[in-house]
Design brief:
The protein has eight helices and eleven strands. It has helices at about 15-25, 35-45, 60-75, 100-120, 145-165, 200-215, 225-235, 240-250, and strands at about 5-10, 30-35, 50-55, 75-85, 130, 170-175, 180, 190, 190-195, 200, 220. α4 packs parallel to α5.
Length: about 250
């Protein structure tokens, strides 16, 4: 019998670690993908042989090929693919370097699609693809416009892919949390404390995402606060929504 695995990218971050913790009992092994070898080693120490490490940069072709080669060598059944790796920067378009723009698109958009297409041939009926998007996908967000646009891509890609996969029994779902309390969240900008309305823990987001996945949904919106936000931005004109957003961030820009 083939081993059943979960592949989790960005496995050493707050959300990634939570996915490892919450799916590890459902599979034979987790392939933990990340760039920081030290943090990957710590993950291995916590979970032992239940975790296989893939240290690579997913913005580079060689990083994607590491996953491809391991799949070809071991030919497992992929029960879960969690595309969690991502990057974000709050700044004016003028403050982005060419490399930052390219890396954001490569990591947030290109890598999940490439990895998903690599993994689908190793999936069976009941396999799950979880793409970590964001509530920022719901509307245009000035000063995080590149991040928000990349997450809109990821959300729409996931939902459309789910429709394409319907007859295969493989499911794709977009996970769209609001503010998540992890070490990646910037708590201070220009010496001012940032307020995060509706902030939730990574544990909460992952648990809700897995529940929604098992219900067969193609979109997971953790927390009542974000569900209300989704309705709000869907009904109101986008220019008005952007005006509210700009008012909320004006002291930080």
């Amino acid at each position: 019998m083939k081993r059943r695995i979960a592949i989790i990218t960005g496995a050493t971050g707050g959300m990634g670690r939570e996915f490892v913790a919450q799916v590890i009992d459902e599979v034979d092994e987790i392939w933990a993908v990340g760039r920081d070898k030290g943090k990957l080693s710590a993950l291995k120490q916590n979970y032992g042989n239940s975790v296989s490490l893939i240290a690579c940069d997913l913005t580079e072709k060689e990083g994607i090929n590491r996953i491809k080669e391991k799949l070809q060598e071991e030919a497992p059944v992929i029960q879960y693919l969690v595309n969690n790796a991502g990057t974000a920067k709050m700044a004016s378009y003028k403050e982005f370097t060419m490399d930052e723009i390219s890396n954001t698109i490569d990591l947030n958009c290109k890598a999940p699609v490439l990895i998903t297409n690599l993994c689908i041939p190793y999936m069976e009926r009941g396999s799950k693809i979880l793409n970590i998007a964001s509530a920022s996908a719901f509307q245009p967000n000035p000063y995080i416009n590149l991040y928000a646009s990349s997450k809109a891509f990821e959300m729409n890609y996931s939902r459309a892919l789910n429709a394409e996969l319907k007859n295969t029994g493989i499911q794709a779902i977009a996970i769209c949390p609001g503010w998540v309390d992890t070490e990646l969240l910037i708590k201070e900008i220009k010496g001012k404390q940032v307020r995060f309305p509706g902030i939730v823990s990574a544990h909460y987001v992952v648990a809700q995402a897995l529940r929604d996945t098992k219900k067969g949904k193609d979109l997971s919106i953790p927390s009542l606060y974000v569900k209300c936000q989704y309705i709000f931005v869907t009904l109101l004109p986008k220019k008005l929504v952007m005006g509210f957003w700009m008012k909320g961030i004006r002291e930080f820009i």
